[in-house]
């Protein structure tokens, strides 16, 4: 899924009106598994001046990048973090770890050749799904609109739940980013 959708889904599942720290943790948990990708892309593109096509056709699939992805996309690590949060009854950490696990659960069936190792340190195995949120040859023409529709519905529900103007504005910005990144306009027009 696109990262803005992960933030929307994470906030919908684990955010709590009137509990800003919990909701912020849910948003951060939705972002965390993709954060290394953004940081490495920015570094490669703007510091090392590597063309985007090289980043996404070579660097992304390199052993070095996959080693980083293995850590921040590790279901065992996120699961251990969730177990700790539940055991200690820390709602902020429950929201963070829960949104991170939700992110991974949604990524697992929607990444094909670009799949990340999600069982590290137990295994470097990667599940190459027949479905993709971005690759039209793997049903993105169906997945993309479903992702956008779910993001719209969840944002509408959260706009009803959350009364804070700042939260509502943030949700609308996330939805705009999701609709822009999902390419929904290709399907609409």
TrEMBL record:
TM regions (residue ranges): 24-44, 64-85, 92-110, 140-159, 171-188
Tagged with keyword Transmembrane: yes
Keywords noted in UniProt: Membrane, Transmembrane, Transmembrane helix
Protein name: Cobalamin biosynthesis protein CobQ
Species of the source: Limimaricola litoreus
């Amino acid at each position: 899924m696109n990262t803005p959708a992960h933030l929307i889904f994470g906030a919908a599942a684990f955010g709590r009106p009137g509990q800003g720290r919990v909701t912020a943790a849910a948003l951060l948990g939705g972002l965390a598994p993709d954060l290394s990708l953004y940081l490495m892309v920015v570094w490669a593109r703007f510091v090392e001046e590597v063309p985007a096509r090289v980043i996404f056709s070579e660097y992304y699939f390199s052993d070095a990048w996959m080693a980083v992805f293995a850590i921040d996309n590790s279901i065992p690590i996120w699961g251990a973090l969730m177990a700790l949060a539940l055991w200690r009854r820390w709602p902020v950490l429950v929201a963070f770890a829960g949104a991170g696990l939700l992110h991974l659960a949604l990524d697992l069936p929607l990444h094909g050749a670009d799949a990340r190792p999600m069982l590290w340190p137990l295994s470097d195995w990667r599940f190459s799904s027949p479905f993709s949120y971005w690759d039209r040859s793997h049903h993105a023409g169906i997945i993309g609109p479903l992702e956008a529709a779910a993001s719209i519905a969840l944002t509408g529900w959260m706009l009803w739940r959350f009364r804070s103007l700042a939260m509502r504005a943030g949700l609308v910005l996330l939805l705009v980013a999701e609709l822009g990144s999902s390419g929904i306009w290709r399907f609409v027009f």
